[in-house]
Each structure stands twice: as structure tokens, then as C-alpha cells.
Amino acid sequence: MFFNNKAQAVIAFFSLAFASHFVYKHFRKKYKKAAINEVIMFSYGTTGVKRSKLSRCLISPSMERLLYYLSSPRRSIDICMYVMTNVELTNEILKLAIRGVRIRVIIDADMAFSNGSSLKRLEKQGIPVRWMKSTNLMHHKFCLIDTEFDDIRCTPLVIIGSLNWTTQALNGNWENVAVTSQETLVEQYKNEFDRLWLEFKPIVDIA
């Protein structure tokens, strides 16, 4: 009798495990999205400027695509940016904070308090910002979306390129941005952000 109960328990365990695995694969397949690989070019004198549902201002098609991706996080966004001054991009980040998206920001120390810097608006919203006082520049310009939590509804992305988040870069320069869900690239940028996040210090600790 004991052995029969034990056998039944083992069968029940493996049946549950198999069913759980089947359900997991079903939902992974359901939520699996196509790979994202897009290049966004910013050029001085771009035509086709229009009012967008993502912004109250007149913006270029390139800016609209960037705002589209910045409005997409479900769980987290990590920003590693040499300088941030553009109001529209900052507003989008603040909207994410209100939605409950977890946000971390790394910024260059010399640019943290530059004219028009977004730092004070970010800190006022309770968004953690870190820097490193150094003679070397923190010259990275990348952003990670939904890489911090394992959620099958999310597509982890990295946004990389020459673009600083400034109005001059967005509207007055020739710049490039690439958006990709390629796992190896996303993982490498995530490792770099996590490394810097541990090495750099909260601004309030250094001020």
C-alpha cells in the first residue's frame, strides 16, 4: 500500500511538472515577439516635422520613433548618458516613473549640473542617479529597456548610438541610434551598466 501511494505521488509530481512545462511553453510562444533591429537617423534640417501623440511639441519622425521606444518599458529602464537636457525625453522618463517603472540613471559628473541638465527633475521624482568624479569622461550613450526582470511580456532592448539626449543633438546634428533585442548585445550592455552602477556613487553622497 505504501509503495502504491509513493508511486502515485511520483506520477502526480511528474504529471504536474509536465503540465507546468507545457503551460510555460504555451505562454512563452504566445508572448514571443519578433526580433527588433532598427536604426534611427537624426539629421539637421529634417523635413516632415509634425505634432505627435507622444509629444505636445512638433517633432521629427526620428524623434517620434525614439519616444516610442522610451515609452515602451513595462518593468525597468536603465539610462547611461553623457548629458541629458532635452525636455521631451526627460518628460517621457518622468511619465515612466509615475507608471511605476523602475528607473536608474548614470550620468557624467561634469555634465550633471550643466546648463539645462535634467538632473534636478529626475531627483525630485525620486529617480536614483549616480556619477563618478574623475578626469575621465563617462561618455557612454545607451539605454536598457526591460532587462532587470524576467517577464515573458517584455522584450529586453538596448538603445545605443552617438546621440546625447540634448535638443542640439536631436534637431541640429547628424546622429545615429540603433535599437536591438539581440540577446548577446543586450547582455553585454547590461553587464556594463551593472558594473558602473556598483562602481559609481549616488550624487548626494559626493555633493
Automatic annotation (TrEMBL):
Residues 134-169 form the PLD phosphodiesterase domain. Keywords: Hydrolase, Lipid degradation, Lipid metabolism. Belongs to the phospholipase D family. MitoPLD/Zucchini subfamily. InterPro entries: PLD-like_dom, PLD_domain, PLipase_D/transphosphatidylase. It comes from the Eukaryota. One of its GO terms (biological process) is piRNA processing. Signal peptide: none annotated. This is Mitochondrial cardiolipin hydrolase. One of its GO terms (molecular function) is RNA endonuclease activity producing 5'-phosphomonoesters, hydrolytic mechanism. PANTHER family: CARDIOLIPIN HYDROLASE (PTHR43856), MITOCHONDRIAL CARDIOLIPIN HYDROLASE (PTHR43856:SF1). GO terms for cellular component: mitochondrion. The gene is LOC112057035. It comes from Bicyclus anynana.
